[in-house]
Amino acid sequence: MSKLNAIQVGFLFFILALPLSLLGEDDSCHPSPFVLITVPKSGSHMILKALYLIKGTTALWHADFIPLNLSDQQFLYTHFCVSSSLEEGYAQIPRMKTIINIRDLRDVCISMVYHIHESLWPGMSAEQREVFKTLSFDEQLLFVINYDYDVDEVAEFAPNSLQVSIVKIAEQLEKYCQRSDYLICRYEDLVGPKGGGTEEAQIKEIKRIANHLDLNLSELLLEEIASKLYGNEFDPFGKKGFEDFASTFRQGKIHAWKQLFKEQHIRAFKRKMNKALIALGYETKEDW
Predict the structure, then answer these.
(1) Can you tell me the distance from the alpha carbon of 278 to that of 210, in angstroms, rounded to the nearest whole number?
(2) Which residue among 20, 44, 224, 239 is least enclosed by CB atoms within 10 Å?
């Protein structure tokens, strides 16, 4: 990923470091800025809808630099992995809050197989994708689990790639999920009964998000928000504030890996990402 432009950094840090009182605003009542960082294929658009319904804000996508035009009606949004320059930028923003959206990485791998069929994976050339599509599902899943790359390693055929392999994502997640000041949201809790979860967990997760943003929502509003998250029945994408986003919802059922992982997939996953799986709390021991 490219580094922040020096002029952008200086200007951003100068403006963001100013006390809000000097800008004519009261720090105590000004909403805290926040960033949403999601694992690709972890229900990103579901939590985007949740944040819109909770706070009335829309996402401002960024990947290699922090935009300077963030308003109170927007929040920063990006995928893992996060570059060191972005991490430095976040650290300089006063009162910055962070929300991390995760999902069982075994289910992420399955979802990525279907995603490659529908659109080009950022770290894969067009030729690689055509070969991939000729493989059996088991071979495709094994490829996704084993494929280990960073953006620099695929720059020759994917120069605009800002995403990395799931293996690299898993490595960064281990570190991020140890931060007590970050809110860690689980897809499995947010998805609700239509996706194989529970309504109780879904409402509790929405409430956690609202509380992290210093909002106290009524039970009635929590239930209303929960009813609109799963699927595309409520679809704000492509409209004002969401012009650059489109839903990639397919099925979104939890624990799909239990039906689709075979012994070869389990062995490969344990070699590549078992440490992260345990760190994220999806397993408690090495042998599952």
Answers:
(1) 27
(2) 239
Contact status, residue 42 vs residue 112, Cβ threshold 8 Å = no
Name residue 38's beta-bridge partners. 79, 101
**What digits encode the pLDDT tens for the residues 256-279?**
999 999 999 999 999 999 999 999
Kindly report the three-state secondary structure assignment for every residue of 63-124: CCCCCCCCCCCEEEEEECCCCHHHHHHHHCCCCCEEEEEECCHHHHHHHHHHHHHHCCCCCC
CB atoms within 10 A of CB 138: 14
27 residue type, one letter: D
Structure tokens at 165: 């392999």
Per-residue pLDDT, averaged over 64-71, amounts to 81
Whether the CB-CB separation of 144 and 136 falls below 8 Å is answered with: no
Average pLDDT across the chain, whole number: 83
pLDDT digits (tens, 9 = 90+) for 245-262: 666 666 678 999 999 999
Tokens of 14: 């100068």
pLDDT of residue 30: 65
DSSP-derived secondary structure letter, 165: -
Q: Phi, psi at residue 37, to the nearest 5°?
A: -120, 125
CA atoms within 13 A on the CB side of 255: 7
Amino acid letter for position 126:
A
